[in-house]
Amino acid sequence: QVHLVESGGGSVQIGDSLKLACTGSEDTFDTYDIGWFRQPPGKDREFVSHIGWRGGDIAYADSVKGRFIISRDNAKRTVYLQMSSLKPEDTAVYYCAGTGLVTVEAYQYLYWGQGTQVTVSS
Questions:
Q1: What is the mean pLDDT of each run of 10 residues along the chain (122 residues)?
Q2: How far from chain centre, in Å, is Cα 47?
Q3: Are 109 and 102 in contact (CB under 8 A)?
Q4: Which is nearest to 58 in space by CA: 104, 97, 27?
């Protein structure tokens, strides 16, 4: 089991950058693949990015490819999502989640954080 907490959300303008962090509270954090998902207002939760437990198996949704970068520092029990060239359509609650699989499917993630709000406006 792992307890995850997101941080780093906020309100920014179009084209700005923001770095989210997902921190785990247990020593087992480095045994889990971590995914980032987001839920825009009035829409379903969607996959954003995934990183394997050793930092490989990186994947991105097409909508963020080339703008977002995922990374992890297991010594700090933290996965980061560096977001650049932000657009209004990136506005959402961002969640990180833990799984034992290389997957983009939300239902295959066992542990979820509480989410952090990102708002992009003109």
A1: 95 98 92 97 97 96 98 96 98 97 95 98 91
A2: 9
A3: no
A4: 104
